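User: Good morning. I'm curious how adenosine-5'-triphosphate would be positioned relative to this chain. Could you predict the structure with it bound?
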Amino acid sequence: MKESTPLLPGATDASGRPATLGVMGGGQLGRMFVQAAQAMGYATAVLDPDADSPAGLISHHHIRSAYDDTEGLARLAALSDAITTEFENVPAPALAALAAQRPVAPGAACVAIAQDRAAEKAHFMRCAADGSGVRPAPYAAIDTPEQLAAVADDLLPGILKTARLGYDGKGQARVKDRAELAAAWDRLGRVPCVLEKLMPLRAECSVIVARGANGDCVSFPVQKNTHHDGILAVTEVHEGAIEPALARRAQAATIAIAQQLGYVGVLCVEYFLVDDGQGGLDLVVNEMAPRPHNSGHYTQNACDVSQFEAQVRAVAGLPLRPPVQHSPAIMLNLLGDLWFAPGREAAVTPPWDALLALPGTHLHLYGKASARPGRKMGHLNITGPTVAAVRDTATKALALLGLPPL
Ligand code: ATP
Ligand code: MG
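Assistant: Good morning! Here's the predicted structure, ligand included:
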């Protein structure tokens, strides 16, 4: 994308077609991108095979085709002035085919690295060596029985993760010793994996950055994340959540990771906070997502620019400004489990009215027709004048939902 030619919202081309942003994938992240793009005056096009996809339902155009369907991709390219993706498992060749016709951000090469844990960790190692100072957990790539046998003792106990297609803790096995490691690799189908040393996590955090084609890169504040059963449950972004010196290091490391990729778009990098052995905490880089991230949803209500507007700006070649957080924030993920009271078969809509009666609550539902346990149905952003006020509302909201306290 040429820096000199931003795609201005509301502009029309010679044929009268309005400025249109395309997105590969119609899940909730695509939906919130579409909402941000439409709020600014762009038309949108979504490619997703599902007739009821959350983003397809609200987009100007919904191309219902497989992600690698040549005709579908050609239609998306014909309808769109610039294209992005909302999930990392979009086939890299599809992005490359689109890129031959339209600006695509992030590019296929960056997405390919984020799709593969081994390539991703190799990139993190390069960035650490170049001065970001934040390394991944000790690890070994396992593609062959020989590599499995050669694993260093020091990596055990560890977590075996499939190199590709893992999410929400799926495609992972915790292993104590070599026998468990071999059994787990068998169970995972002997596909390429990485074995990571099990780290003494004290907390987890993530950082979202947006980078433009001109190299400008801005960082959102650092999010503190709590997972339940491998799925993000709560994100907290306020004074006292993360020690400022660690937060600054995480932001600098994330910017370095984006810059060294020549990345364009929104990128999220996840970190572990681990014991440094001297009574303090150290940072370890976990993984990255080449798109907005669940942990960045609080930006919709707590920052002057949301992560989705930042994605729109980056993709359209519009200016990126450093985001300003104007309120402490807590985000609660709303999973499908909330629709099912213990012992009840039928889904019951949760008490949104009671939640919305609490101060500073902002409900975001993704328009998914049916709730299922573990399915991401929406999130609740909580803002307020003080950290204490936000925590108090979060405590009440969690109790209303029957979820564990902060
Ligand atoms: P998602 O896509 O939802 O972020 P994922 O399936 O890609 O998840 P990871 O982020 O690699 O998986 O791991 C999921 C969670 O498991 C982490 O957030 C962390 O809580 C824990 N975990 C992963 N790797 C390690 C490790 N090496 N040591 C300790 N805990 C770990
Ligand atoms: Mg993760």
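The pocket of magnesium ion (ligand 2) is lined by residues 270, 286-287 (CB under 6 Å). DSSP finds twelve helices and 17 strands in the chain.
Let me know if you'd like a different ligand tried.
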